[in-house]
Amino acid sequence: KKNSAGQKEVVQKTPEELEIELLFDKKYTCPNCYEDFNARVVRAGKAKLASSDFDLRPKYENIDCDKYGVLMCPKCGYAALTRYFNSCTPPQLKLIKERISASFKPADKEPLMYTYDEAINRYKMALANAMVKRARASEKAYVCLKTGWMYRAKAETIEATPEHEEELKELKKNEMECIQIAYDGFVSARSSEGYPMCGMDEQTVDYIIAALALKLGKFDVAAKMIAGLLGDLKTGKRMKERALDLKELLLEEKKKQGNA
What is the 3-state secondary structure (H, E, C) of 209-259? Predict the structure, then answer.
C-alpha cells in the first residue's frame, strides 16, 4: 500500500488475520459415518513457540495451537483429540452412533478460525465422545487438561476490570474443575496404563501430575513427584530443570500459605 506521496506504508495486520495465515483446510474422512469433511489445521512448522506455563501449556506467537487440537465431524458429532481420531474400535463406534450421532445436529460451515468458545465446545464434544466410548483414563484426563487451558487462555484475553470480574471468576472456576478432573485421571492412569501415555513418557506425566498438584494446593503430592523426578536417572536434563523451577514455585506457594 502506498500513501499520497507514493511511499510504501506498512499495513498492520489484525490478530485474526495473523492467526488465519497460519491455518489451512485439511480433508479428513470420519471413521464413524465415513463422510469427508474439512477441518482447520495449523500449518506444520509455522507456529513459533514463545513460552510455556509451568503445567506445560504451550504459548505460540499469533496463534493458540491448542484451539485446533480437536477434530470433530460436522455430520455425526464424532470428536476426539487429533491423535485419537482414527483409533476407535467397532464397539466404540457403535456406542458413539447410538449415544452421540443419533441426536447430533449437523454443524454449519467450518469457520476460518475458532474462537475460544468454539474451541471449548469442541473439547467438550471430545470429552463426551471419550466418555461414551469408555476411553482410557489418560485420554479423558488429557482432554480435560487442554479444556482447562482453553478457559485460562480465554481469561487472558479479557481485561481485569470490575465489569469483567464475574466472567473471570467463572472462567477460573471452570479451569480449576478441569484441572482437578485431569489430575485425578492422570493419577489413575499412572497406576493402570503403560507408556507412552498421550504421547508422553513417564517423566513428563509425573511432571504434569506434580504441576497440577501444585495448582490444586496438594503440596505434599507435588513435593513427592518432584523429588522422584530429580532422583530418577531417566529424567532428562531439560525435565530436571523444569522440575527444579517447579520446586521453587512450590516453596514460594508454601511460604505464601505460611504467611496467610
Answer: HHHHHHHCCCHHHHHHHHHHHHHCCCCCHHHHHHHHHHHHHHHHHHHHHHH
Predicted model pTM: 0.92
CA nearest to 51, candidates 202, 153, 160: 153
Q: What is the pLDDT of residues 74-107, one digit of tens each?
A: 999 999 999 999 999 999 999 999 999 999 999 7
